[in-house]
Amino acid sequence: MRLSLVLAAAALAGSSLIATAHAQEQVNLTWQMWGDENDTALFTSLADLVTAEYPNITVTPQFSGWTDYWTRLPVLASSGQIADLVAMQSMRMPSFYSILEPLNSYMEADGLDTAEFESSIIAGLGHDGTQYALPYDVGPWLVYYNRDKFAAAGLKEPALDWTFDDFKSAADALTEGGNYGYAVQAFDFIAGPVALGAEYFNASNQFDITNAGYVDAVTKFSDLVAVDKASPVFASGTGAITGSGRFAAGSAAMYIDGPWVLLQTKDSVDFDIGVAPLPRGEGESRFITAGSGWGIAAASQHKEEAYKALKVLTGPKAAEILASAGRALPGRLAEQTYWYDVAAKDVAGTRETLQYMFEHSTPFRLNEYWNEFENLVTQYMPLALNGDSTTEEVLANIQSQLPM
């Protein structure tokens, strides 16, 4: 009897040692995202947060340039070389959700409260009701404007609920000589029409960009260029993002972009800037938002550890670090104040504008052909802007190239 007890105790002790050894097994997670060497220190500091909380887990960031990231991601996934943690942009989720691990069961077991995040980006990083990533940033497209030029022209600064007629009037008044009131970019023909109340999808979530409402809304923006000459034409192609450069140079008084460029925009100009919502149509204001986050690769061999890391990387302290560096308007609501205190410091109307826009956000409707649509808009819209085609003809051409 005594021998049996001794053997049982020994077996129990042995199993405890095995369990302890297993619990302390060192796991190195890889973490792939877009960025460059300038991002290394910032994101390494986030990786260090993981190890501080879970000493047996280390996280190694791996950076690629923006374009290379999306080119390489499907290759890495198909070849089994994808990282454990994967950066994902909400606008690309419909094309890449299948390479990510569904998070719902992890979140339910953990009791994660998604109400701590801005609701639009939680939805944006899911697909068909399944969560595939947790957010680190979020933001709507908004109008950047040159306060000095508005003041010199005797114009009132934009109200939160200003209309397209207000926007057009300001653009016309601020256009003189070689200076423009507005610098259009390709994405303006997506975010802008939505703000005016138009829809580019039908009820089946398929593209319908020849419907009368969308054509009319796009025409309003294209006429600012083709008819009113209040904006220059952007060049066709993927490198058509020129509005920020014209704005920074002082040759355009307004342009449209997201809060993710606020800090660099503020630091690149020698005039006072302000931000305002996109102009509305005849109805209520409505805005689409986007953002990014991190998910777990479906092929990861360390999913439990990856989820622990993911919670830290999208947790309050990490959000505070990113926000305090001006890097991102956090997807976490409580930590957004750090971004306002740094990136938005001395920029008129930022907090009020973004709070108003989040209150009036509408779902960003996407499908698996979204990136093709965006590329076609960039390629073909200049034909309407320079007068080679009508807006209606350009949209019909784009529609014909999209899968039905």
Q: Percent range for helical residues? A: 40-55%
The overall average pLDDT, rounded, is 92
Could you tell me the strand content as a percent range?
5-15%
Number of E-state strands? 10
Number of helices: 18
| H/E element sequence | HEHEHEHHHEEEEHHHHHEHEEHHHHHH
Helices and strands: which structural class?
alpha+beta
Distance between the termini: 77 Å
**Major beta-sheet overview:** 5 strands, mixed
Q: Give me the oligomer status.
A: single chain
Radius of gyration: 24 Å
Large-scale geometry: globular
Strand order of the largest sheet: 2-1-3-10-6
Poorly predicted runs are 1-13, 16-21
Plain-language structure description:
α2 links the parallel β1 and β2. Helix content is 45%, strand content 13%. The strands form 3 sheets. The chain has a 5-stranded mixed sheet with strand order 2-1-3-10-6. Strands 8-7-9 form a 3-stranded antiparallel sheet. α2 crosses α13 and α9 (188-195) crosses α10. By secondary structure, the chain is of the alpha+beta class. It contains 18 helices and 10 strands.
Features:
3-stranded antiparallel β-sheet, 18 helices, alpha+beta, 5-stranded mixed β-sheet, 45% helix, globular, disordered N terminus, 404 residues, single chain, 10 strands
